Amino acid sequence: MILIFLGPPGVGKGTISAKMVERFGVVQISSGDLLRATIQLGYEEGIEAKMYMDRGNLVPDSIVNKMINERIAKPDCKNGFILDGYPRTVKQAIDLEGMGVNVDKVLSFVLDDSELVGRISGRRICKRCGFIYNTRTNPTKEIDVCDNCQGELFLRDDDRPEAVMQRLDVHREKTAKLIEYYGKKKMIATIDASGTSDEVFERCMQTIKEAGYCDCGVTSLTQ
Ligand code: AMP
Prior knowledge:
Largest sheet: 5 strands, parallel
Radius of gyration: 17 Å
Strand order of the largest sheet: 2-3-1-4-8
Number of helices: 9
Helix content: 40-55%
Structural class: alpha/beta
Strand content: 5-15%
Number of strands: 8
Order of helices and strands: EHEHHHEHEHEEEHEHH
Distance between the termini: 12 Å
Bound molecules: adenosine monophosphate
């Protein structure tokens, strides 16, 4: 089964994907994480991508599509995966179809802007294991120290207020059209992203079951 997680920055796509990974052993493919890894490794493409990311703009398709195409070709993806943050535009959705990917369901996460901004400004990520915390809703026991691995936490450059408003604007302008695109194909389900991550996760599970992908369908991803 192949799922797409759509939604504005801060809506919790990464957190819910991580829960799916933990529960079902599925593969999560986050375009944002792939880009950040490319930057950390010092690749030329990463240096170019960072200029766009720091300003809250979308990275050119040539970079993102290549990265996704290479990732989904890896053997661990053969039983299915969750695309988190890709596609972000109708053009990318069409490019994804061109890669031969048949998407089963698109989950569109929705939340008020004011709540999104609050979540983003509180987001802290472990440098070592990548676990996502939130200073308000999911704080660490010790300030800025990861509960899992004692790694140091950091605030993403593009989670700073100046980039956040731009990212929300980009989402409204580009990604909203994508919702319409998948809506016409009757592939989309809307998920209320308010409340705790456990509540949102349960809503996702319910939607997946209602769509005919019962637990066994999801579990088959791990086989
Ligand atoms: P995310 O981690 O999903 O919030 O993505 C962080 C940033 O990476 C975005 O604001 C974009 O600059 C870039 N990015 C992530 N995914 C894509 C994509 N599918 N297309 C273009 N840029 C992307």
